[in-house]
Design brief:
single chain, alpha/beta, seven-stranded mixed β-sheet, six-stranded mixed β-sheet, 18% strand, binds NADPH dihydro-nicotinamide-adenine-dinucleotide phosphate
Length: 488
């Protein structure tokens, strides 16, 4: 920080934030030129391939297999073969494997963090401090349940389902893998997982962890490819499908599986309300607003993308927010100082740009802090819209980018009504000093997760999931085991 500038009665604001570059080395990651499919504990040659790139500079990273129907069916058949032995194993033995995976993930955390940022574009400080530790924590947590299922569900007989087909998105590639794989294995199932097309590399590195942990062959299988591979996995002979991604694809999967007897959980989009009351700790709330929407470039299903500010504090909140936004460092995901990294893909950048143009055309007022975006790669400046009406597309649709819409309310009733006025129901945030108001609001908000005086907090012990078009089923905690068990 250099000199401080005093402006009227406002608190001091730094005139300039100059940070020397602090790039994380990529030496710790060694990539193959070409990856096959990880099936039955072996690498099988793919028939077709595509190139995965780094969104920070569009540089190719590796060739990855595009699995076709027959390859997916083969992976599922191998997983079914492995199910017999894996489900018959003493639960305490299964737990040992999960503990091993957790430990190895922790030991190799730097390698995973660098690769996650390289392939997905998220800031290294987030992959290092959030994604990878939480992924390891998920395995630790579910390892603990593996031999205690009868205690988890007293007077019931928990039994695994068989083979789980799991499809994950690109915003938290390793963490979503952990959310899916850990409870499935703890419950005694085997899995075939498809990572997102743009971010397959940490899932492929995870195969090496599986090998290192000496997991029996066929218990974890990874098939890469685009949406067609996902669709083939849904069609294949699996007992359960677990999907995280867009509401559109989630609905298509639900239609496809209706009447099939296959179990399904869907974790879909969101348009969370972050509600700020006039009695809150204002600076803390501004930090929460920033974390709520600019964390991971806003590629977060539970992002606080609709900010509801009580009318009496609208001006100071917006002013503080804009000043805080001016201090966000946008740039190289592998720089340890970076707050906002690269947009995950060209397609996503186009989607964000289109919705932002729609916001401007509908009459909202846009603010973007001055920041120099790198010339190569996919970038979008942190953006806030004021003067937003409830009907605008930017207030209704999931943007999945660093774009915040600010709206106002007068009374708690009005806040609830406006917050619930969305097809989604994944998460919400409340900022107030009054405990009773938090409880009152929480009872009325149609959201699977409600944070109070914080935002975007995750813990493996805590169930996560949505209402309405945000999906059904819960991941995390005891609730996260249920979708992988029959309870008789
Ligand atoms: P998708 O829903 O298409 O992607 C999620 C996963 O599903 C990916 O692995 C994808 O593969 C796979 N998939 C795609 N089509 C099918 C299909 N027909 N059957 C089975 N699996 C399929 O999301 P997008 O990546 O297209 O993102 C679009 C929008 O969705 C975003 O702008 C955002 O609004 C929302 N989204 C929400 C997420 C959330 O966590 N709630 C996560 C990701 C996106 P592939 O990557 O190869 O296409």
């Amino acid at each position: 920080m250099t000199d401080l500038e005093k402006r009227g009665d406002r608190s001091p604001v730094p005139a300039d934030w100059t940070y020397a570059p602090a790039p994380e080395s990529t030496d710790i990651v060694s990539l193959r030129e070409r990856y096959g499919l990880y099936v039955g504990g072996e690498w099988l040659e793919g028939t077709e391939h595509y190139t995965t790139v780094s969104p920070r500079d569009e540089e190719p990273l590796a060739e990855v297999a595009q699995a076709g129907e027959a390859e997916v069916q083969n992976a599922v058949a191998v997983a079914r073969d492995a199910f017999g032995t894996w489900s018959a194993l003493a639960p305490s033995e299964r737990a040992k494997y999960l503990f091993r995976i957790a430990r190895i993930l922790a030991e190799r955390s730097r390698e995973f963090a660098v690769l996650e940022s390289l392939n997905g574009g998220k800031p290294i400080k987030e992959s290092r401090d959030v994604d990878v530790p939480l992924a390891a924590a998920h395995f630790f947590y579910y390892a603990g349940w593996a031999d205690k299922l009868e205690y988890a569900f007293p007077n019931r007989q928990p039994r695994p389902l068989g083979v789980a087909g799991q499809i994950i998105p690109w915003n938290f590639p390793l963490l979503m893998l952990a959310w899916k794989v850990a409870p499935a294995l703890a419950a005694g199932n085997t899995v075939v997982l498809k990572p997102a097309e743009t971010t397959p590399l940490t899932a492929l590195l995870f195969c090496d962890v599986v090998r290192q942990a000496e997991l029996p062959p066929g218990v974890v299988n990874i098939v890469t490819g685009d949406g067609r591979t996902g669709a083939a996995l849904v069609e294949a002979d699996v007992d359960k499908v677990a999907f995280t991604g867009s509401t559109e694809v989630g609905k298509a999967i639900q239609r496809r599986l209706a009447g099939s007897g296959k179990r399904l959980t869907l974790e879909l989009g969101g348009k969370a309300a972050n509600i700020v009351f006039d009695d809150c700790a204002l600076d803390q709330a501004v930090e929460g607003i920033v974390n709520g929407i600019y964390f991971n470039q806003g590629h977060v299903c539970c992002a606080g993308s609709r900010l509801f500010v009580q009318e009496s504090i609208y001006e100071p909140v917006v002013e503080k927010l804009k000043r805080r936004m001016a201090t966000l460092r946008v740039g190289d995901p592998l720089d340890k100082n970076t707050d906002v990294g690269a947009i995950n893909s060209r397609e996503q950048l186009e989607r964000i740009s289109e919705l932002v143009e729609a916001g401007k055309a509908e009459g909202a007022e846009i603010y973007q802090p001055p920041c120099r975006l790198p010339e190569r790669g996919y970038w979008f400046a942190p953006t806030v819209f004021t003067n937003v009406a409830q009907s605008y597309r930017i207030a209704q649709e999931e943007i999945f980018g660093p774009v915040l819409s600010v709206l106002t309310f007068r009374t708690p009733d009005e806040a609830v009504e406006k917050a619930n006025n969305t097809p989604y129901g994944l998460s919400a945030g409340i900022w107030t000093e009054k405990g009773s108001r938090i409880l009152w609001m929480t009872e009325r908000l149609r959201a699977g997760v409600v944070w109070a005086n914080t935002f975007n907090r995750f813990d493996p012990t805590s169930p996560f999931g949505g209402y309405k078009e945000s999906g059904f089923g819960r991941e995390g905690g005891l609730h996260g085991l249920e979708p992988y068990l029959t309870l008789s």
